[in-house]
Known about the structure:
Blueprint lengths: L1 H28 L6 E7 L8 E10 L2 E10 L7 E9 L2 E8 L8 E10 L2 E11 L9 E12 L2
Antiparallel strand pairs: 1-2, 1-8, 2-3, 3-4, 4-5, 5-6, 6-7, 7-8
Amino acid sequence: MVELILGIIATLIGAIxxxxxxxxxxxxxxxxxxxxxxxQYIPPHQGEPEKRDLVACKQIGNTVKGxxxxxxxxxxxxxxWKFKGRAYENLFAVVYWAIEPTASDSFGSWLMKHTGExxxxxxxxxxxxxxxxxxxxxxxxxxxxxxxxxxx
Length: 152
């Protein structure tokens, strides 16, 4: 009987220790290099003005997600996008989409690489459907440079 009680106690202590270790592990993987707030810079391209955004990003393991809020140009200030994707060592790829239902054509993807301490560079890809007829889809494809700098 004493052995049974000691076995149960040892099992409970083991389960608690494993729970603490797992919790600490999840805490650590939530500390990836993409956690934090970034300034996003998009240079002028094809008649579009320079753009600056504030990015709130969260990395848990290989999953990356967050929100982008437009700061400049002033006529676009306050626009918002969500994004979600995957990080692979010094690279990450995400899909983004506009939060506003009226901006249904504002979506695409980013592919970015780590280029230095707290800096990421890459391109964002956007396809615009010019016509609404599914039998006659005409696409405009854009590959636009993008840079992130982590704010302290």
